[in-house]
């Protein structure tokens, strides 16, 4: 037998006679049996410490029930352990574990009996007792496991396995008669299971199990605060309603409950939704008290009466559905933009980041004089140097850069829309000033402002936003440019003086060791000197820059420019912006082309249809008609050199209702030059 086992048993490429059934030969049978029982004892101990125990069984009056259920559960695992090999199974039949299990499920030894073997001899034979394992199998073969766990102290559960007992008579006490009038399912909250992902083969779950598993899943996801702790004390109305619905009524799935709780906790923590809702509820209560006082001035109003919690939940839902949630998300996105963190939440969700250009690029404030001392101190050059991350305070702040993003994709999409919206709102006034500067300077330079604006890159727009004058209304850009041109020669002269002084000192110091070379004159080099540059006369310049006069009404120049509010911190570059962030910045920059199209191309058109309603809307929006320029408007005009004396005038055509309204109309096509030629 041993040779056969040695021939078929091969472990790790070596021929050996040892296997699970045969322990080392140096052990005697008693030691081998003891070793097997020791291994089984360690296995059973591991089962008892690692297996799951429902919270419902933690109550003191359920301890006996849980001990019976735990013994039956561990017995099934031990039976699998006995199937490793017949020798191990035979050694485990007399283990002390089976005696403990029998004492729990049959404390009165109701089914314990000895039997005598059938024998032809007339001599009396002592009865043979079955071993503990066989006795356990006899009990469980004719018993109901559910009844044994629910009623472990009675003997009616035995011999009822696989049988149905029906009787119309049940004895009960007077106190139990009152409890029969209430549906017992509502005592423990036993309701049909809807979460088949967590409990795939369970028809119904109780309140205790649902609460326990909700807390376990919340601990695994590390969102204990989002569900309000183990008692589920949540302040948010929506999270509270969905948690109570799942725990008490078994509505929904645990994954959906945790998703909503996580989103609501993020909104409560990182936005001002909680403060907005509390203020709205307080205002509603005040209006109710004021209406009561107005209806009956003599009535005494008790301010200590608390409102109904259900009414507050319904009112909070109505207020949030009215748009206060969008306001809170807009405020969150606006604060990020003002702090100089122009990264879209969509890029953070999808992980769009460049290794050489991280997100926390330094941002500067265009108008430092509007900040206080502490804020100005944070504007010192600091950022990523030599591959190191910024650790000192600055903009954007580390709390903004490292702040958590929305935990779910639907909420992240809402914040993405809010980011795009706030980028347009915050940058729109500055973009209008950039358009105003382009128009004013282009009219003086006889250049096409539309072409100049189309050639601007995102970095050029970012540099314009870093200018102080961009965030001031009514700046005289021509005066600023003249002052800048006057400052350039002065700076160059100062630079040349410093250079000549340094070169003179170096020449005097090295005069003793320097040999004077020939003078490099024009005669020495045998070349002719270049003629002086030709200066264009005003007439030639005027003839060169001939173009049609464009009168555009722009914002007037103020003696004291007005500050735009709010002014965000602007990043030092736009190259670090990922895809969605760059698209949001580009959408905010579209106003450049829109304003230029409305104020330049529209004014160059020879035929302009101006309905009365459109004219009123244009005046209200600040886009003024050419023939209706106000007195305080700053109009920049370039008078061209014309070959004839005919003055081109804008032809205005007003549309009026005619007969045949609603019929098919053929539109005429014509060019601007045809209209001007007809006037000649």
TrEMBL record:
Residue ranges, compositional bias (Low complexity): 500-513
Polar residues: compositionally biased ranges: 514-527
The protein's name in its UniProt record: Uncharacterized protein
Biased composition (Basic and acidic residues): 486-496
Residue ranges of the region described as Disordered: 378-407, 486-544
């Amino acid at each position: 037998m041993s040779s056969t086992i040695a021939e078929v048993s091969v472990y790790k490429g070596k021929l050996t006679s040892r296997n699970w059934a045969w322990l080392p030969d140096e052990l005697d049978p008693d030691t081998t049996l003891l070793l097997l029982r020791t291994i089984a004892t360690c296995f059973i101990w591991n089962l008892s410490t690692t297996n799951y125990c429902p919270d419902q069984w933690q109550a003191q009056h359920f301890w006996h029930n849980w001990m019976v259920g735990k013994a039956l559960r561990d017995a099934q695992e031990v039976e699998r352990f006995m199937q490793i090999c017949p020798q191990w199974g035979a050694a485990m039949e007399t283990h002390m574990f089976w005696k403990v299990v029998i004492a729990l499920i049959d404390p009165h030894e109701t089914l314990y009996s000895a039997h005598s073997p059938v024998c032809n001899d007339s001599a009396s034979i002592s009865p043979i007792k079955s071993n503990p394992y066989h006795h356990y199998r006899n009990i469980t073969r004719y018993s109901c496991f559910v009844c044994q766990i629910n009623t472990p102290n009675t003997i009616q559960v035995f011999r009822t396995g696989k049988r149905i007992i029906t009787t119309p008579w049940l004895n009960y006490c007077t106190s139990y008669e009152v409890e029969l009038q209430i549906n017992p399912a509502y005592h423990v909250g036993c309701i049909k299971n809807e979460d088949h992902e967590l409990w795939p083969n369970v028809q119904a779950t109780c309140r205790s199990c649902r609460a326990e598993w909700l807390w376990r899943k919340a601990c695994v996801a590390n969102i204990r605060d989002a569900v309000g702790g183990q008692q589920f004390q949540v302040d948010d109305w929506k999270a509270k309603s969905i948690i109570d619905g799942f725990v008490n009524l078994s509505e929904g799935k645990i994954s959906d409950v945790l998703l909503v709780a996580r989103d609501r906790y993020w909104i409560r923590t990182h936005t001002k939704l909680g403060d907005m809702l509390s203020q709205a509820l307080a205002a509603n209560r005040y209006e109710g008290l004021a209406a009561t006082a107005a209806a009956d001035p003599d009535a005494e109003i008790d301010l200590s009466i608390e409102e109904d919690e259900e009414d507050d939940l319904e009112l909070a839902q109505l207020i949030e559905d009215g748009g206060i949630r969008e306001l809170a998300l807009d405020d969150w996105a606006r604060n990020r933009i003002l702090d100089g963190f122009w990264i879209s939440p969509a890029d953070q969700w999808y992980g769009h980041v460049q290794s050489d250009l991280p997100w926390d690029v330094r941002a500067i404030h265009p108008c430092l004089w509007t900040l206080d001392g502490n804020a100005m101190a944070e504007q010192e050059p600091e950022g990523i140097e030599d591959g190191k991350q910024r650790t000192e305070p600055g903009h954007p702040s580390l709390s903004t850069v490292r702040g958590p993003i929305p935990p779910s994709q639907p909420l992240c999409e809402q914040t993405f829309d809010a980011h795009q919206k706030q980028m347009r709102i915050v940058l729109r006034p500055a973009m209008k000033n950039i358009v105003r500067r382009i128009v004013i300077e282009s009219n003086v330079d006889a250049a096409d402002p539309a072409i100049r604006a189309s050639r601007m890159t995102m970095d050029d727009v970012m540099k314009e936003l870093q200018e102080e004058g961009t965030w001031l209304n009514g700046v005289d850009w021509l005066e600023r440019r003249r002052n800048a041109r006057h400052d350039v020669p002065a700076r160059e002269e100062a630079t040349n003086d410093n250079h000549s002084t340094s070169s003179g000192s170096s020449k005097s110091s090295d005069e003793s060791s320097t040999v004077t070379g020939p003078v490099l004159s024009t005669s020495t080099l045998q070349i002719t000197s270049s003629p002086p540059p030709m200066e264009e006369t005003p007439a030639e310049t005027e003839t060169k820059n001939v173009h049609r006069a464009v009168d555009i009404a722009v914002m007037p120049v103020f003696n004291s420019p007005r500050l735009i509010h709010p002014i965000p911190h602007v990043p030092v570059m736009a190259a670090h912006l990922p895809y969605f962030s760059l698209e949001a910045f580009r959408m905010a920059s579209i106003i450049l082309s829109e304003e230029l199209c409305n104020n330049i191309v529209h004014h160059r058109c020879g035929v302009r249809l101006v309905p009365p309603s459109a004219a009123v809307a244009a005046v209200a929006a600040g886009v003024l008609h050419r023939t209706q320029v106000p007195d305080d408007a700053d109009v920049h005009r370039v008078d061209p050199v014309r070959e004839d004396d005919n003055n081109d005038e804008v032809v205005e055509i007003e549309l009026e209702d005619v007969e045949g309204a609603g019929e098919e109309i053929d539109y005429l096509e014509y060019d601007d030059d045809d209209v001007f030629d007809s006037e000649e």
